[in-house]
Design brief:
10 helices; Jelly Rolls; elongated; 2 domains; Arc Repressor Mutant, subunit A
């Protein structure tokens, strides 16, 4: 026997998982092309395939570019405008769904703009696949070009089977979006963990003569990649953080012990006392000895 059980739907209200396509399309915009939209009963999801433009929604103006999607919830009005320098080409899908629908929440959360993991090429192919249900000329077309389909060409879905097919293709695209965006979230989590692991390692090993290359080696990543992740997470480079940890510990030792400068240098990971003193002075404007004397006055 083979079978399946949809655990997700068992746990959710089924009406919140229903989505029905209303319309979709692709457009290459002229410079400065503007579309003003009134509040509508369906959601609108736009994918920017090329170029850039601006979205005005809820009183805010947002810049959007290729590789991003923007979401206009049902009942919201606004407008969007193609760039004068690099006008966009976008695809869109209008669909009905309850505001509590998991797809909307999982994909966008509380945001209107999303950085897409799915390539523009695959997105365009998926949209054309939906349109091919209405226009058979598009069955073997992977890329829309204005000269091949001039003007505004709209085709209606004329029977129930075609409606089901178009909707299933929309749902396939939505499934791909969730699948690929999930990969991005997983990657971001892994990146965050790498930065945290690097921080924890330096917190423990600052007293050793370690370099950022050593930290990166322990984590099996390139030093430049680690630096990028660390700066994104902690707003400073790993090297800056390691120096800060060492200098903070040096200040404690200078103020609370009678260890020699050479011993303190060694205790905070510097094999050369002169290098330690130089770094300390660059951080605090005074030498380790001057700092100790100030603390003992």
């Amino acid at each position: 026997m083979l079978g399946s059980k949809d655990i997700f739907l068992d746990r959710a209200k089924r009406e919140l998982s229903v989505m029905q396509m209303n319309h979709c399309g692709i457009q290459e915009c002229e410079k400065g092309h503007m579309w003003q939209f009134q509040a509508r009963p369906y959601h609108l999801l736009h994918f920017v395939l090329q170029g850039e433009g601006s979205l005005k929604i809820s009183g805010r103006m947002l810049n959007v570019h290729a590789g991003q999607a923007f979401f206009i919830p049902a009942g919201i009005e606004g407008k969007y405008i193609a760039s004068m320098q690099n006008p966009w080409k976008y695809a869109w899908i209008g669909f009905y769904a309850d505001n509590g629908n998991k797809f909307i929440d999982l994909l966008f959360g509380k945001n209107e703009i999303l950085d897409l993991a799915l390539s523009a090429k695959e997105l365009e192919k998926e949209i054309l696949s939906i349109l091919a249900v209405m226009d058979k000329r598009l069955q073997d077309v992977d890329r829309y070009q204005e000269e091949d389909f001039p003007g505004a060409q709209f085709f209606s879905i004329r029977n129930f089977s075609a409606s089901l097919e178009a909707n299933s293709r929309m749902l396939h695209l939505f499934a791909r979006l969730l699948e690929t965006q999930g990969d991005i979230k997983k990657l971001k989590k892994e990146e965050k963990n790498l930065a945290k692991d690097a921080k924890n390692y330096m917190d423990r090993m600052y007293s050793r003569d370690i370099r950022i290359q050593d930290v990166a080696g322990i984590l099996h990543v390139h030093p430049n990649y680690l630096s990028t992740l660390f700066r994104r997470e902690y707003d400073q480079s790993p090297r800056e953080y390691l120096r800060k940890v060492r200098m903070n510990q040096a200040k404690i030792l200078l103020a609370t012990t009678e260890y020699s400068i050479s011993d303190i240098s060694s205790d905070v990971g510097y094999t050369n006392p002169f290098q330690f003193s130089k770094v300390f002075k660059s951080c605090y404007g005074i030498s380790p000895t001057e700092y100790r004397n100030m603390r003992q006055m």
